[in-house]
């Protein structure tokens, strides 16, 4: 081994040792976060209920709060106001040309409802709701979507037992298996399909030509 190569190797090993040593040191800045500080941002809720804070809220309490703080945008019965989204109804509309994606017709898990409300609502005053108020609002939304009766009371104890109507329509991404035949190391890049047909139209965006375009040109 030449002297220059040995010298370069020594520099490399020395630099690696210095980097490893520096990574083990601290800069004397900050301190470990306290449990109460962590709780201020650790508010996410999982579908199995993990992360839910202790609390309870009734449909009746949620209705009163909904009318005060939510109805201006979402309508008194969750039907939506103006361009604000509806929260109730829409059953059986997902296969139509104008699907109505509400808590009852589309959302898969109740934890998403609680998490979204607690984290981001009301609009313009996010994270102003207490856990009990959030439980009440979620209970009222469940009632408006015919999931629970009017006298129902939601809590962290019975939360995980509630199932939304469209939960079973959601499933893990199965493309690694169902589309495996399309995967190969040398994909086709030219003249891959002889007959090209329009099988669907982006109706809302209005981007699919209504008439057949000239060869090689699309208006």
Brief characterization of the structure:
It is built from 7 helices and 2 strands.
Task: Spell out the key features of this protein.
single chain; 219 residues; mainly alpha; Cytochrome Bc1 Complex, Chain D, domain 2; two-stranded antiparallel sheet; 7 helices; 3% strand; extended
**Secondary-structure element string:** HHEHHHHEH
Strand content: under 5%
Shape: extended
Tally of extended strands? 2
CATH architecture of one domain: Orthogonal Bundle
Please describe what this structure looks like.
By secondary structure, this protein is an all-alpha fold. It has a domain at 46-168: Cytochrome c-like domain (Cytochrome Bc1 Complex, Chain D, domain 2). It contains seven helices and two strands. It has helices spanning 3-23, 35-39, 59-69, 71-74, 110-120, 131-144, 175-178, and strands at 56-58, 153-155. It has a two-stranded antiparallel ribbon. Helix 3 crosses helix 6 and helix 5 (110-120) packs across helix 6 (131-144). The termini are far apart. The relative contact order is 0.12.
Question: What's the layout of helices and strands?
Answer:
Layout: H1 3-23, H2 35-39, E1 56-58, H3 59-69, H4 71-74, H5 110-120, H6 131-144, E2 153-155, H7 175-178
Antiparallel strand pairs: 1-2
Helix pairs in contact: 3-6, 5-6
């Amino acid at each position: 081994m030449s002297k220059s190569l040995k010298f370069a190797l020594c520099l490399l090993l020395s630099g690696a040792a210095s980097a490893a040593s520096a990574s083990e040191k601290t800069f004397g800045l900050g301190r470990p976060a306290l449990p109460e500080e962590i709780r201020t941002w650790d508010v996410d809720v999982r579908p199995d209920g993990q992360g839910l804070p202790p609390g309870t809220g009734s449909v009746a309490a949620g209705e009163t709060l909904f009318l005060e703080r939510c109805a201006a945008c979402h309508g008194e019965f969750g039907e939506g106001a103006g361009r604000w989204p509806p929260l109730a109804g829409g059953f059986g509309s997902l296969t139509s040309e104008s699907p109505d994606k509400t808590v009852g017709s589309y959302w898969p898990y109740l934890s998403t409802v609680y998490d979204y409300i607690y984290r981001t609502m009301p609009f313009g005053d996010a994270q102003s709701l207490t856990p009990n108020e959030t439980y009440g609002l979620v209970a009222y939304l469940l009632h408006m979507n015919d999931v629970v009766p009017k006298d129902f009371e939601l809590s962290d104890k019975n939360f995980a037992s509630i199932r939304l109507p469209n939960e079973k329509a959601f499933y893990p991404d199965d493309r690694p298996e169902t589309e495996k035949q399309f995967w190969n190391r040398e994909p086709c890049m030219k003249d891959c399909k002889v007959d090209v047909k329009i099988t669907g139209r982006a109706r809302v965006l209005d981007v699919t030509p209504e008439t057949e375009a000239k060869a090689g040109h699309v208006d």
